[in-house]
């Protein structure tokens, strides 16, 4: 998928929700008295701009980006370097790993919803539903059922008044998916911390045995942690493990 195709896909996917309710009413207008008329096409434009302004948050909610960026941030903390790699590089790497993992989902959403919508084969409402289906399948495959049950039990009155549904509503699926991804990222972060913590403990013990208690152990252990990570080819191993965790 080319960059142009991906940008068209993102615009159409995020704008379909705003266009869904007004797609069939473009001929109507709102009378403003002597000031003229404001057509619903202008309203659609405002809706599209609003949705596009929320695009980063929407992209985070339905992809593996939260998992990727959390693990990479924990890795930086474990190594002990606070500003290297910088935040922009961490986010950029997480974005491209997310694109690599989510490419099949993007393709399925394009073929099922966005492409037919641009060709005039589907209405905005149907295109939005078809586009969202691959993302729903992705989230349902990764979400923890216990998290869904916990959130459902957190609002029992809402569950009692809600109509019966054959599938999990997005208002429940998306927060459950986000919580599951963050939980999984912290579990992996714990495993990442262990070898670097051992290096810190060994260096601190050696410094105390030598009577160098005034020397900060974190400063002395940093070169050893960096050397260990580089010799183990840590970036490649971690990126490969993160991608394989999604079955890609």
UniProtKB/TrEMBL annotation:
Keywords: Bacterial flagellum, Bacterial flagellum biogenesis, Bacterial flagellum protein export, Cell membrane, Cell projection, Cilium, Flagellum, Membrane, Protein transport, Signal, Transmembrane, Transmembrane helix, Transport. One of its GO terms (cellular component) is bacterial-type flagellum basal body. It is found in: Cell membrane; Bacterial flagellum basal body. The chain crosses the membrane at residues 45-75, 87-106, 188-210, 222-243. Coiled coil: none annotated. GO terms for biological process: bacterial-type flagellum organization; protein secretion. It is a multi-pass membrane protein. Its main location: membrane. Residues 1-22 form the signal peptide. The keyword Transmembrane helix applies. Belongs to the FliP/MopC/SpaP family. Plays a role in the flagellum-specific transport system. This is Flagellar biosynthetic protein FliP. It comes from Pikeienuella piscinae.
């Amino acid at each position: 998928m080319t960059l142009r195709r991906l940008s068209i896909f993102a615009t159409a996917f995020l704008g379909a929700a705003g266009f869904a309710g007004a797609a069939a009413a473009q001929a109507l207008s709102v009378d403003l008295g002597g000031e003229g008329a404001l057509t619903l096409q202008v309203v659609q434009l405002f809706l599209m701009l609003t949705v596009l302004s929320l695009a980063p948050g929407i992209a985070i909610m339905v992809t593996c980006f939260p998992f990727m960026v959390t693990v990479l941030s924990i890795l930086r903390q474990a190594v002990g370097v606070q500003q290297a790699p910088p935040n922009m590089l961490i986010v950029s790497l997480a974005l491209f790993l997310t694109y690599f993992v989510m490419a099949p989902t993007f393709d399925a959403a394009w073929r099922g919803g966005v492409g037919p919508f641009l060709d005039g084969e589907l209405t905005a409402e149907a295109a939005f539903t078809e586009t969202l289906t691959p993302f729903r399948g992705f989230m349902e495959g990764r979400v923890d059922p216990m998290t869904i049950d916990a959130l459902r039990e957190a609002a029992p009155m809402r569950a009692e008044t809600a109509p019966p549904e054959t599938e999990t509503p997005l208002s429940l699926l998306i927060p459950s998916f986000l919580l599951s991804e963050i939980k999984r990222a912290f579990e992996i972060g714990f495993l990442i911390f262990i070898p670097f913590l051992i290096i810190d403990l060994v260096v601190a013990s050696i410094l105390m045995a030598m009577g160098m208690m005034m020397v900060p152990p974190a400063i002395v252990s940093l070169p050893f942690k960096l050397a260990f990570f580089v010799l183990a080819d840590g970036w490649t191993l971690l990126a490969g493990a993160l991608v394989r965790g999604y079955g890609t």
